[in-house]
Write the C-alpha cells for this entry.
Amino acid sequence: MTNITYTNARIIDPQNQMDFMGGLVVQNGHITDIGPEIKAGVDGNIINCNGDILCPAFVDLRANLRDPASEEECAKLQLLAMNQGFGAVVLTPAGKYILDDVNRIRAVLRQEFAHKQVKIHCYGAITKGFQAKEMTEMGLMMRAGAVGFTENTHAISDSLLMMRIMEYADSIGALLLLHPLDNYLSSGDANYAPHTIALGMRPSYPIAEEIAISRDIALLKHIIDGGLNGLRIHFSHITTAGAVQAIRLAQAQGLPITCDCTAWHFSYNHEKLDNNYNTTYKLNPPLRAENDRLAIIQGLQDGTIGAIASDYTSLRNDDKNTTFLSALPGGDSYNQFWQLCLQNSQLPLPKLIEKLTINPAKILNITDEFGSLARNMPANITKIDQNGAKLLHCL
C-alpha cells in the first residue's frame, strides 16, 4: 500500500485518551506516527481531512448470515460494514448450517474474502445443533479461530447444563455470549403491551430477559465462589430496564460481565408497532417500552452497557414482505447505523466511539489489531464526516 499522511483531522482514540486536531502517518499498513504537529510526512499521498474525524475502525460484535460459509454473502456483508465504518465483524454460528464443530469454523475462516480490509471473525455454537442437550468441543473451535461461543437467539433452559458449560468455558478461558431469555415467556412477535395485544401480536414478556440474566448471574457467582475465575460472560442485545439494573449491580460486585445493545433499542420503542404492521420493526428481542429505551441510554451513559452491536441479519425480500406474524425478525441494521447512534445514543462523541471500537475489541480479545491508533498498530482506521462513517483503505 502507498504510504499515506493524513493531516488536518480530528483524531479521536478513547483507548489512548486522544482528542485533538492533527494527523497520522501510515506506512506499509501500520501507523508509524500520530500527533498534533503532523502537517505532511513521508513520501506518498498527503490527504487533507478538512477537519473530519479519524478514529479506530469500528468492531461489530454480531452479524447474522443465512450461510456464513458463502463467499457471496460474506462479500456483501463486508461491503455494507465497510460503508458504516466497521473494520471487523463477528459472524454468529446460525444460518444454513450451524457452526458447531471445528471443520465448520475452518470452512468460514479459510474463505478468500472479497474485501480483505474488513476482518471476519466467527463464534462457535455452545451446544450441538442449538439443541441445548450436549455441549460442543469449544476448545477445538477456539484453537481453530472462534473468538467466543453463543447459542445466538436460542436459550439454554437446563440450568445444570448451563453450569457445566460455564465450568468448561472457565477452564479454557472462553467467552460466552448469552441471549438472555426464558423460552416459555419470549416466543412472541412483539413486546407485551396493551396496544400490541390489541393489534393481535403474540406477546414476548420483558421479564423473560430479567429471569434469564438473574439465573446466569447466580450460576456465575456459584462458579466464582468455587474458586474458578477464567470465565467471561457477555449478555447480547439487552433491552429492558430490569436487565440493565441487574447487570449494573452484578458489575458493581466485580463479576466479569459485559453486555451490549443495538441502535434499534435506544432509538425506538414499541410504539413503532401500529396498525400499519411495519415488519421493519419486528426484531428479536423486540422493541420495548419507553422506560426501557431510556434505561438503555442510561446504561450506555454510566458504562453498564459497554458496546453497541449492529445485529445485522441477512434476509430476503420475501422474509419481510409478508404479514407481521409470518415475517422473520431482524434486517439490514447497517442502514443508517452511524446516524442512529449519533442522533439517539445521547453520548458524547468520544464515548460513543469507545462503545464501537476499544470496548468490543476488548470483549473479543482482539486489541492487538483493533481499538487503537497507537504507533505500530495496524492501520484499521475509520473516517467520520457529515455523510457518515466509512472504513479507510489503509492496509
Observations:
- The mean pLDDT is 93.
- The domain at 57-370 is CATH 3.20.20.140 (TIM Barrel).
- The longest helix spans residues 207-225.
- Residues 75 and 291 are 38 Å apart (CA to CA).
